[in-house]
Amino acid sequence: MFKTVIAAGFGLVLSAAWGQGSMPVVELSAGFHRIEAEVAASDQNRQVGLMNRQAMPAQHGMLFVFTQKNTHCMWMRNTLIPLSVAFIDDDGYIINIEDMQPQTENNHCARVPARYALEMNLGWFAQRGLKPGVRLGGLDKAPRPQ
Fold it and tell me: What is the DSSP letter of 140?
């Protein structure tokens, strides 16, 4: 099966710099937890992701919106902060969550075809008891993939 490898980097130089890039920001929810996510909906934004950023505020992340469902994979080339990624299906349900270490090229993949991936600071999902099967809200507000 073909796997799309996306450079999973996303961090912020400073929290004040959040959202100042060219990517739109969408508010998501996981239970009663609120997430402010930059949206990587174009090929270029998906390829760069969170690369070269030094930090990311606690309730912030990056939502990758893919043009098609697939067993997409993420890696951490040029990504300076540790991240957790949740792969998400068309209906907003978390498929699986993977922890990723900075500046590595190991593939972290969706176990079944996914439409989205949400990167958060390492351990964010586990610290809140969020596991596969949890549904995220707000995905319908995200820009369409390009």
Answer: G
What is this structure's pTM?
0.85
Chain centroid, CA 117 distance in Å:
4
What distances in angstroms separate CA 41 from CA 45, 87, 99, one per listed residue?
Answer: 7, 15, 22
- Using 50, 70 and 90 to split pLDDT, how confident is the model at 145? very high
First CA to last CA distance, the chain: 22
Strands of 20-125 (E only): list them. 25-30, 33-40, 60-70, 73-75, 83-88, 94-100, 108-109, 114-121
The torsion of the CA quartet 137, 138, 144, 146, rounded to 10 degrees, works out to: -80
Digit-coded pLDDT (tens) for 1-45: 333 444 443 333 333 344 445 799 999 999 999 999 999 999 999
- Please name every residue paired with 29 in a beta bridge, in sequence order, or none if there are none: 34, 137
For the purposes of burial, counting CB atoms within 10 Å of the CB of 67, is it exposed (0-12), middle (13-18) or buried (19 or more)? Answer: middle
Residue 92 CB: number of other CB atoms within 10 A? 18
